[in-house]
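Priority: medium. Attachment 1 of 2:
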């Protein structure tokens, strides 16, 4: 009896020792963040010193992609490590099946304390995916920038302030109150810089006297593409009104409160005052430019681009500051050394490329997601990873970091295989993309987008618009901006045919089991 008791105590000792050495995992996540607006990425147009710190002290992934460039499917792919068809969230209206396997539940069962704070944005609230959760609520799961409502198992609560800071405050509180005997997994998921972009009040001003660079492809004429590419509703030139923070002035609203746009009504008096101080002068100048006939054609498109990109970067600035608070806390609390810190976003974003401000396409700007990882003692400082990775790789990476085995049903691969110097060089050579939130030639989907799928390898990209029986093929080495569709060009026939076969093989590899069921 005594031996059994001693054996049990020894087992508990082993379990506790094991748990203590496993790394904490801090997943920092945003919504619609373009690589071009992160200082660490080549070609960046702004500064993000705190986000850059993660890359500088760890690894920067320059070829990190999503499997389906849209909000809900990206989140589901991350949780499950699987392509959209396998996890069931193929589009933004798909229901989330919370009973399916997710990495966070497994990690929780293995002795981690797990928590989710911020933007969940799946159709169906969390249940037991995380041991504790507090998510942005309202507006279809988008939540508000100002004075957002949060939902947790205890109900709803409204918090005064800006969502970026509130999510950080809640994340820091969670970290401070955690069970220090356990390793943790915390996902802090931000709303920024998703449309309608409302920066924090101390970031609303500024950038009035400068212009950000305009992408080379801003005036793309789409001359080598199918017509539906240029017909999608995501052109910056079509943006207007409150999504650009164009609204009546304070004086006008005071005279006639009925014209107050709903987003201003959501703010308290201090927030509204700050908004009017920053935006009324801009909006008066805008009206003057129109009156003077200075906002016609290209001039109008360029003006809208500057209004858009400045608010986008003001939101990113606010995020960068809050990421800095979290990194400082890790330093001060002695957590930095044994915490794997990840920064990523659900997808990239067109910030003016091809004249667009959206995502969804398999073109590089939206297909790519930012990805940076810091893990002292494991990832060498200043590492750059150019290999093809996807958001489905995060779940297996976290499982492996937690010392857990990776189920065969997971599609992704653990990034340790390319991050650690001791590992072999074999890695995937091509990746699959599938976007389903489109319609058919008779009835187009949201944004007038076509469904499409495709394959990208280290040099080429093949896209199939299967409803339209149209293809595109790009040589990313010679044409990284994807302006010259080479499908049908004789000299590329072997590569096109090779990728057409690979596309079918990849689909069979991932989904054969689904089709057999
Ligand atoms: Ca998004």
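Attachment 2 of 2:
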């Amino acid at each position: 009896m005594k031996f059994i008791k001693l054996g049990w105590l020894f087992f508990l000792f082993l379990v506790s020792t094991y748990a203590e050495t496993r790394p904490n995992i801090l997943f920092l996540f945003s919504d619609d963040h373009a690589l071009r607006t992160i200082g660490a990425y080549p070609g960046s147009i702004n500064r993000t010193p705190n986000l850059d710190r993660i890359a500088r002290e760890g690894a920067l992934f320059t070829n990190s992609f999503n499997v389906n460039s849209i909000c809900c499917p990206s989140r589901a792919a991350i949780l499950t490590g699987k392509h959209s068809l396998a996890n069931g969230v193929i589009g933004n209206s798909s229901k989330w099946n919370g009973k399916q396997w997710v990495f966070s539940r497994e990690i929780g069962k293995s002795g981690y304390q797990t928590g989710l704070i911020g933007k969940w944005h799946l159709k169906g609230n969390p249940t037991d995916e995380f041991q504790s959760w507090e998510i942005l609520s309202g507006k279809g799961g988008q939540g508000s920038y100002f004075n957002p409502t949060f939902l947790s198992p205890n109900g709803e609560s409204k918090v005064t302030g800006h969502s970026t800071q509130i999510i950080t405050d809640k994340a820091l509180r969670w970290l401070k109150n955690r069970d220090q005997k356990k390793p943790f997994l915390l996902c802090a998921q931000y709303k920024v810089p998703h449309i309608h972009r409302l920066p924090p009040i101390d970031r609303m001003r500024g950038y009035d006297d400068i212009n950000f660079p305009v992408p080379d492809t801003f005036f793309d004429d789409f001359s080598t593409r199918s017509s539906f590419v240029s017909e999608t509703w995501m052109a910056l030139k079509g943006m207007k009104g409150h999504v650009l923070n164009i609204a009546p002035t304070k004086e006008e609203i005071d005279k006639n409160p009925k014209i107050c746009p709903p987003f201003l009504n959501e703010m308290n008096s201090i927030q509204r005052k700050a908004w009017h101080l920053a935006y009324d002068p801009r909006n008066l100048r805008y009206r003057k430019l129109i009156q003077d006939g200075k906002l016609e054609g290209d001039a109008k498109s360029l003006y809208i681009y500057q209004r858009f990109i400045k608010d986008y970067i003001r939101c990113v600035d606010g995020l960068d500051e809050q990421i800095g608070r979290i990194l400082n806390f890790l330093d001060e609390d002695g957590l930095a050394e044994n915490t794997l810190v990840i920064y990523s976003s659900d997808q990239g974003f067109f910030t003016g490329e091809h004249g667009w401000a959206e995502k969804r396409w398999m073109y590089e700007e939206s297909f790519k997601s930012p990805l940076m990882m810091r893990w002292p003692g494991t990832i060498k400082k200043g590492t750059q990873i150019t290999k093809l990775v996807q958001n489905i790789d995060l779940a297996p990476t976290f499982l492996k970091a937690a010392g857990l085995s990776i189920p065969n049903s997971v599609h992704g691969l653990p990034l340790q295989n390319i991050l650690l110097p001791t590992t072999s060089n074999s890695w995937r050579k091509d990746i699959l993309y599938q976007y389903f939130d489109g319609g058919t030639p008779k009835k187009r989907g949201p944004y007038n987008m076509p469904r499409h799928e495709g394959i990208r390898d280290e040099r080429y990209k093949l896209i199939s618009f299967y409803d339209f029986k149209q293809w595109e093929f790009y040589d990313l080495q010679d044409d990284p901006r994807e302006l010259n569709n080479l499908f049908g060009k004789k000299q590329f026939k072997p590569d096109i045919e090779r990728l057409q076969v690979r596309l079918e093989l990849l689909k069979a590899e991932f989904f054969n089991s689904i089709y057999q069921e």
